[in-house]
């Protein structure tokens, strides 16, 4: 009985604390970068990021070190402010960063569930086998995969799109290692470029949109610069591909029941999120979560009409004899006969990415509360000018993940205009293409095409990618007159 009333009581206490925090004045942040706490916090963050960079070598998921680092950094923040006689600011700032993360977490969870649902319905597999079975030449498939990646990544996010088209490149290339290597680089560049002109294309663009610096339609201003960013290196790399015929299976995979319906539901959810944000000025996560609820209701319909299968720890639909014994459809034990379960799709979300994002948001937020971002903003944007500073920040994203970089820029808020925010979005989103470790798409494809698409094979074409990067910046500057 105690537990029955504990949750409502805790919830009301949380609402009360939030309401009290809402009427308080904005806390004044202190510059504690030169303190022992500041130095320790920076050291912890750098050490955690060393583990992130060495993720593949250590086989240690990147979310683990940053989550620990986030907790330690905020303990240091709390101690630093308490030493200054302030026991309020650290907690208030932490709640703000947790709220920012909560909105993005729910938004990404809904988007990932839709993408995983489309994968489970074999929509992407049907597209892949169709391309392989059409008999296109290697050079044609190189351009087709590039164009499709550039067009799909604004909707399905750059990581999911890169994995899909990477599977096509591997299937078509067979043992043609040069084609696979160049094709994977092309997919990475196209995925990052395509994701730069849509709020749904990358986590960084989603962050900029949710912060209100760029509206949904204004992202389209980056379409031409993003296209230039991809086309220049794509054209140069295409010269290395011989125009032969691929070897591949002629069997075509059909979509499972509901594939088209889910695509339409995803599109409707995106539209609803945009309208909720632009017309009602409510967080777009409301539209995404409502759409997720509708998807779950549709999942209930599928659970009643889909063929049963024997679960082996992941979703695999095998035809089995019909059964009306609902007792057989219950339970979570391996080997239990059951129907489609939407919650199994939710489980397949990239939880490592979601938890990594939590750690990064809190780590950067902690450093900002200690005063590091204010100093960095003054040094970078005050002395170099905004266009050059944004261009250099984009290059930095080839070495450091673009999520903390964009979050740092948002936290610094250097007073940029719309065109300058668009430039920052373009450079941070595409600068990671310069190295294979510079973006989630590159890291994922290195794992997918082990031994063929590598850090060094990507580095050989970094000069061409850099040309596209510089050309896209000048294209944006020319269009906007910056």
Automatic annotation (TrEMBL):
Keywords of the record: Antiport, Ion transport, Membrane, Signal, Sodium, Sodium transport, Transmembrane, Transmembrane helix, Transport
The organism's place on the tree of life at top rank: Bacteria
Record's signal peptide: 1-21
Domain Citrate transporter-like: 49-429
One annotated Gene Ontology cellular component of this protein: membrane
Biological processes per GO annotation: sodium ion transport
InterPro entries: Cit_transptr-like_dom (IPR004680), NhaD-like (IPR045016)
Annotated TM spans: 37-54, 66-84, 96-115, 136-156, 219-241, 262-280, 286-304, 354-373, 379-400, 421-441, 461-479
Subcellular localization: Membrane
Protein topology in the membrane: Multi-pass membrane protein
Any one GO MF annotation of this record: antiporter activity
Predominant cellular place of this UniProt entry's protein: membrane
Keyword field contains Amino-acid biosynthesis: no
Protein family according to the UniProt entry: Belongs to the NhaD Na(+)/H(+) (TC 2.A.62) antiporter family.
Name of this chain's protein: Na+/H+ antiporter NhaD
Phylogenetic classification of the source organism: Bacteria, Pseudomonadati, Pseudomonadota, Gammaproteobacteria, Oceanospirillales
